[in-house]
């Protein structure tokens, strides 16, 4: 099995090696920070012309998880789009496929700092927060209002000399890695993440999901 | 042109005779390349025509002579050296430099009111040519002097300079160009490199007497391994004492720091000895240079930072610590000693370890035989061309036909096809993607037949990206605790290889790694302990093929071992006893356990690049066989692979047909290709260089270039950047031809299973520059490591 199973406030969950979160009891698939349209936005601002294929790449990985798990509900935890203008400029093939995926099941778009207004072009419901049992799904973890499941930080962890995208699991917060292809990462040891999760485990993504403790000993390089 | 009387008088007042090559350069009617040893008055020869032309009054508003050197330090030095004849002759000429160190005020003034003589570097020239004022600044240019052309031609900096030169030749028709070079193996190839439409005349100066060069005899033998050369400190100090001024060359910055400290620890007489390398601040380098120029120093410990021509006439001895790796470079370094023409250069070599003793003996033989090494230069790389196209657009809108015509006058791009040019232009304009275009957001737009920038704001980003040297990602190192003192920077790849508790060297101090935050390594002082790992330093010299062959022949023939020092003879004898000696025609390999992992050593003597490719191919095969390879390193003479399970029979792995099949899709996600891609994509402007401050903001805005590489391979496999990456790797890093040559020229194979490290393999274990393999072995290791951490923390692993 390529995922790592754990329990968070009574929810049986699985951190997938892809970076998606799976809730088997309700058949929910949760992904964070898809950042569709990132290359478009950089080009618009006069920056480098990156390979404009990150939408296809992200969509393929998402499609493969959907095909494997057959979720009834998909939740995007915010920053699904790199900014509001990118939705109009999205690759028509990507947009069509995304529309097809989102009409076939329940789909929730939680708003993030990059895409606060929601997206009328796409099926699915737009929300700021979404409750799941005793837990809140939101874009950015709220230190005062846990337990919550969120994204926003793009956490990464160093394991055996490599940087891996990672889930961070603490007492009150579960933070997902960015699912989008062109996304940087913030070390789980960064102060802003340590404040939220002083101690817990990181689940590193790769060919398998691998759990390791954080906030106990420094992550070891090799 | 003849030497005017007042110049003849000036020479006479210095007690000098003009050298024949100085006069030959005056008589030259077109472009020239002067090959002369250091000390032959080369720089003065290059500037004499300019001084003579400028003596009859000065035209304002445009540069008359442009001098380009690879080093900022050289421009300052040349400025000082020229000041004297200019003052003596009463010439009214403004000479200024323009480098990355030049302040904003002076830069602005130079754009409006340029000096008669401008001293600069290839990167600063590219920047100046990207200004709209470039035609005004350079329109009246009469002469260009290219110093240390042999050094510039070795890298993409030379290609960029030649493109700039083509631009200058177009802006100022009738321009005369003079190249200055140290001894090279093929002067006519270098002349062709710098030529425009007309051929370049080669002027060879008298090379002077043969150098006095030998190994420095030492009381203690060279150590088994390591690169420090500290065992020779007493003899080096003796040599410094006997000479007037000595340059001590050493290959890496960290080694230079350590050697400098060790010298001072033994320097009872307080001989004034300085230190000079690229990581030191500009101020401290300038202090050392000034002290050398004033004759206040008896010696300076230096890296390649002093390879190039600052003219210190007083230097009468060069000591090379560590193997020179390349005969031509050794000859050029020897030439740094004794700048008095027609006196022999004196140089002594100190091999750092026993293997290097062999290399040094082989190199000395080559020097005596005048056998210089070097590979022919490939065509001008397209990533440099992409950058040039974008910078051209920064200066002014351009027509494609005119630009193509101009570019193909540059030596390296003379055979550029129109199709390749169009591909580069398309990349610069649209990104050049097959499946999807940035219709609305192109970088360059075609309007009224001219290509121009869509968004003028991008000029700033493009100018920040100028240059062809791509530095490795750096991680800061600082002392532990709140407000710990910053010590410097190490490469990210090196940082990733450290575990807490490892000791390493930085800024001449031994420190212990405590923790690694994302972009900072925290350390504690740990004096008294030997550092386990030396700081990886960017510039790694590769041993030339010719020298590698000489080394193999020397090792393989015990009858020639008499030319080696006794301790090296013993070492090779021990190797012959516990394993056997490699020799021409024999491919020797060994398997042995070490530090809990299996190691496979192959003595191929095919050069670092070919052995690196072989490492990539072999680790792929080992991955398929389930041996769990974790990484490898290649040196010029051997390849070492470590894995979870041992290689027991290398014969099937080394089957040429199998290797060739592996090469077919070797462009797969390996580290070398990704590293090459990162360089290519940065030079071409696909990736913006990290801007200062960007990575300190916590959230990493940048993401790995590996992601772009993987994305392109998947969705746009024919993209220009992948083609350029494959070309570059194929020319330099891949070198598959030499693997095949190695296999076909080594009909005999021998594999030894050993209980422990063999004498010949021991130094390999201490080498830096390991390439990690991201495969099943590493996944297994990551799992083991994570489980151990979980258990340590008292957590259960539930998966």
Summarize this, please?
Chain A has 222 residues and is α/β, with parallel strands linked by helices.
Index terms:
heterodimer, A: 222 residues, 5 helices, B: 799 residues, alpha/beta, Rossmann fold, 5 domains, 7-stranded parallel β-sheet, 6-stranded parallel β-sheet, 30 helices, 26 strands, 17% strand
Give a topology summary.
The complex is a heterodimer of chains A (222) and B (799).
Chain A: E1 4-8, E2 11-15, E3 21-23, E4 28-31, H1 38-44, H2 54-69, E5 73-76, H3 84-89, H4 92-103, E6 106-110, E7 125-127, E8 129-132, E9 135-138, E10 148-150, E11 155-159, E12 162-169, E13 173-175, E14 186-187, H5 191-196, E15 200-204, E16 210-214
Parallel strand pairs in A: 4-5, 5-6, 6-7, 9-10, 10-13, 11-14
Antiparallel strand pairs in A: 1-2, 2-3, 3-4, 8-9, 11-12, 12-13, 12-15, 15-16
Chain B: H1 5-13, H2 20-27, E1 32-35, H3 42-55, E2 65-68, H4 72-88, E3 95-98, H5 104-112, E4 117-120, H6 122-129, H7 134-138, E5 143-146, H8 149-152, H9 156-171, E6 176-181, H10 187-194, E7 201-204, E8 212-215, H11 233-242, E9 245-250, H12 253-266, E10 273-276, H13 282-293, E11 299-302, E12 315-321, H14 327-334, E13 346-350, H15 354-368, H16 382-395, H17 400-407, H18 418-430, E14 444-447, E15 450-453, H19 458-464, E16 474-479, E17 486-491, H20 492-496, E18 503-506, E19 509-516, E20 520-525, H21 545-556, H22 566-578, E21 586-594, E22 597-603, H23 608-624, E23 629-634, E24 639-643, H24 656-664, H25 671-684, H26 705-715, H27 720-734, H28 736-744, E25 748-753, H29 762-765, E26 771-772, H30 776-792
Parallel strand pairs in B: 1-6, 1-7, 2-4, 2-5, 3-4, 5-6, 8-13, 9-11, 9-12, 10-11, 12-13, 16-20, 21-25
Antiparallel strand pairs in B: 14-15, 16-17, 18-19, 19-20, 21-22, 22-24, 23-24, 23-26
